[in-house]
């Protein structure tokens, strides 16, 4: 879990360069990063809005726990 200083730095980076802020939080080859890059290229303000949303609200750990992905565990066993 990130502390307050880390979140403030990520938000500041997301306001200055939105895709970089999302890249630092989620990684370079993720859906969040690609979507933020596309929105930033289409318009700077939509990129900032999505970057702030992706940094503050999106928690990727809840989508990748073992309980929620039974298809991955079955596919590797076959």
TrEMBL record:
<keyword id="KW-0812">Transmembrane</keyword>
<comment type="similarity">
    <text>Belongs to the UPF0057 (PMP3) family.</text>
</comment>
<protein>
    <submittedName>
        <fullName>UPF0057 membrane protein</fullName>
    </submittedName>
</protein>
<dbReference type="InterPro" id="IPR000612">
    <property type="entry name" value="PMP3"/>
</dbReference>
<keyword id="KW-0472">Membrane</keyword>
<dbReference type="GO" id="GO:0016020">
    <property type="term" value="C:membrane"/>
</dbReference>
<dbReference type="Pfam" id="PF01679">
    <property type="entry name" value="Pmp3"/>
</dbReference>
<keyword id="KW-1133">Transmembrane helix</keyword>
<feature type="transmembrane region" description="Helical">
    <location>
        <begin position="33"/>
        <end position="58"/>
    </location>
</feature>
